[in-house]
Design a protein that fits this description.
- The protein is globular.
- 50% of the residues are buried.
- The protein is built from 13 helices and eleven strands.
- α3 links the parallel β2 and β3.
- 41% of the residues lie in helices and 13% in strands.
- The chain is α/β, with parallel strands linked by helices.
């Protein structure tokens, strides 16, 4: 495939302008390796890893490929604990705790934001790219990464966020449309009702910034890639389409839910973590959400919700599992990640050939 727009290819040193989305809990070193070896850019998701876990994944990817890859982090600010709101949230979940015999004071793990220790690891392993969700890290940390010649990417859900990211020195911007699975990257707004879809967002972000734009949200095959490039994007970030690959760590029950899902199966909800994220509707989303005003700020809501997941799954239920998915779950394919990348490249080429007549 002869890509006409080479901005991202030359910047990242990859063959194809396809980034495998860094999906925390789903991405694996094997998935990142397979994607990078196929000419795209694989990603490690650092958001839910301990420093030891992150080191292990860095080592595995480094051993598996010498091609460029990306590591992603959340950069949320630690919320102020609101005792009243936390009490209301636990009271709302109390009937479920009783149903599954979970102790009332059970507490799940939290999510750590990018910090100095994580920065040290990134500098030690020097991936080609470091990407960030919910804004950008402290400028001191940003400067350390830049001095090491590590390229930086930030996610934007509005043109205003994209302009801010560019002003802070990122090398590329991900324009995340409302269709995307998982957490919204929003950081200058919290109004999900006004978030634009990918088709509307991408050209406006392209017009707003000079750095290359990477389209994300609802893209799962060559048709979506071609459409994104036609809108002015230099590349795409794809997540849900990789979730049925054998390299992905997608749990069996999550895989089963994805196979049953269609274009009408997902919604944006804050009940799992306190931040809006797109996933397949299940019992707790219907009964508590999808958007609950009682959910504590990210990531505190997860500390009370997480203890319900294990007992429910032990009974074969995904009622309390965050089944993250974008709006195009039917485009996910059960094939090795490298073959999936090759298939999407062929499909995009066929679209461009057809359009050229």
């Amino acid at each position: 495939m002869n890509w006409q727009d080479r901005r991202l290819l030359d910047l990242f040193g990859v063959e194809h302008p396809i980034l495998q989305a860094p999906m925390a809990g789903v991405t694996s070193p094997q998935l990142a390796i397979a994607t990078s070896e196929a000419g795209g850019m694989g990603s490690i998701a650092g958001a839910m890893l301990t420093p030891e876990g992150l080191r292990q994944e860095f080592q595995m990817v480094r051993q598996g490929t010498n091609r460029p890859f990306n590591v992603n982090f959340f950069v949320h600010k630690a919320p102020t604990v609101d005792a009243g709101r936390d009490a209301r949230w636990r009271q709302k979940l109390a009937p479920y705790y009783q149903e599954f015999g979970v102790p009332a004071d059970a507490k799940g793990p939290s999510r750590a934001a990018f910090d100095g220790a994580a920065c040290d690891l990134v500098l030690e392993f020097k991936p080609k790219v470091a990407s960030f969700h919910f804004g950008l890290p402290d400028r001191t940390l940003m400067q350390r990464l830049k001095e090491a010649k590590i390229l930086l990417i930030g996610s934007a859900t509005t043109a205003e966020e994209a302009r801010w990211l560019e002003s802070e020195g990122v090398d590329a911007v991900i324009a995340q449309g409302a269709e995307a699975g998982g957490h919204r990257g929003m950081f200058l707004t919290d109004d999900i009702a006004r978030q634009a879809g990918t088709m509307a967002l991408v050209p406006q972000v392209v017009d707003a910034v000079k750095v290359p734009v990477i389209a994300a949200g609802g893209i799962g095959d060559g048709r979506g890639i071609a459409a994104a490039l036609a809108l002015g994007a230099a590349g795409v970030q794809i997540g849900t389409a990789f979730m049925l690959t054998p390299e992905a760590k997608t749990a069996p029950m999550h895989r089963a839910a994805l196979k049953k899902a269609d274009d009408n199966s997902t919604t944006l909800t804050n009940v799992f973590t306190g931040r809006p994220a797109r996933g397949i509707v299940n019992r707790v989303v219907r009964e508590v959400g999808p958007m609950s005003p009682d959910a504590p700020a990210f990531p505190l809501a997860a500390e009370a919700m997480q203890p319900l997941r294990g007992p429910a799954e032990a009974k074969g239920s995904t009622d309390f599992t965050p089944l993250w998915s974008g709006q195009a779950p039917t485009l996910a394919r059960e094939m090795p990640a490298g073959e999936l990348v090759a298939a999407m490249v062929r499909e995009a080429g066929a679209v461009f050939s057809r359009l050229r007549g």
